[in-house]
Amino acid sequence: MNTFSVGELHAFLTEQGVQHVTRDVSLAAISRWKIGGTADLLVEPGSTAEVATVMQAVRRFDVPVFVMGDGSNMLFDSRGFRGVILRIGRHLAELRIEGTRVSCGGGHWVPDLAMRLARRGLGGLEHIVGIPGTIGGLVLMNGGSQRKGVGEHVVEVTCVEGDGTIRTYGKDELDFTYRHSALQGRGAVITYVELELAPADPAQVRRAMIEIMASRRRKFPKNLPNCGSTFLSNPAMYEVVGPPGRAIEEAGFKGKAIGGAQVSPLHANFIVNQGNAMSDEVLALIALIRQTVHDRTGYLMDCEARFVTSEGEERPAHEFTDAKRFDTSLLTQVT
Which residue of the set 179, 216, 315, 325 is catalytic? Predict the structure, then answer.
């Protein structure tokens, strides 16, 4: 996408009434990992209609688009992004609670949603309280903690397809399995989520969430930027070896670093940014960990973290390390 087309698309979106359109945005500033170059255009829509307008526009102008929420599990390329970042966040975060039925915008921040549900005496989603991210992103990947998934409580979702078509899907169409939904990989943008919860004692729900948060504070790094868990838990591997963090620690990587990317000394399944990490350094560390753990255990760990290239290609980070799409000379620079 050249400079002229960036300006042309910016002007077109503004003419169509899309608000909150910004040029030349630092991806490091809007991602949890604090890694990434400059994106040509950032759009933060305020309605499903605006999302549809953006999706139709990027097809018309033939430019890459990447959809993000809070950016909690994303690794952006340090070379930047030549296209449109469509960020579903605070401008699309309406919340409505009627009895046990909850409707919320895809950009609603997950910890805030969990606390609001607790105050209303609604149980079932206590496990999401400590997860940084938006509800749309959480539903897309059927995220959660304690090996639970939010999909259990989803009734339906409203989304915008890649061609700008607005669709509503019921739970039966979403094929929720562990950390997976049928919408993944289709370019669909979740704009609204409807949930069904169960009545619960607010005090009991709050106690459960306090315990979850205390456990997360003990186990997980907070002071340095990270994406949460880097590797997915594999049930077969879990039975024999244990969780990814244990396998990584036993392989000797806890506290190890390549450049500014470090395996957290607190929890080995977290890679933290010590302040100046580059995307290739993170990918190199992932590659080295993955190969070493495989050599030791026979299991290849897949990534929960996803990498977004400067051209807009987005897949689990390990797929790029398998293809050696990073500076492989960094593999010898572990300290």
Answer: 179
Structure tokens at 107: 């950009």
Structural domain boundaries enclosing 310: 235-332
Specify whether the CB–CB gap between 30 and 87 falls below 8 A: yes
72 part of the active site:
no
Hey, what are 85's tokens? 């970042």
Annotation says 103 is catalytic: no
In this structure, are 198 and 96 located in the same domain? yes
Domain of 165, CATH number, reads 3.30.465.10
Model confidence pLDDT, tens digit, residues 108-165: 999 999 999 999 999 999 999 988 889 999 999 898 888 889 999 999 999 999 999 9
Choose the catalytic residue: 50, 304, 310, 314: 304
Catalytic site residue 179? Answer: yes
> How does pLDDT run across 261-316, given as a tens digit for each residue?
999 999 999 999 999 999 999 999 999 999 999 999 999 999 999 999 999 898 99
How many domains in the chain?
3
Residues 133 and 78 in one domain: no
CB atoms within 10 A of CB 78: 17
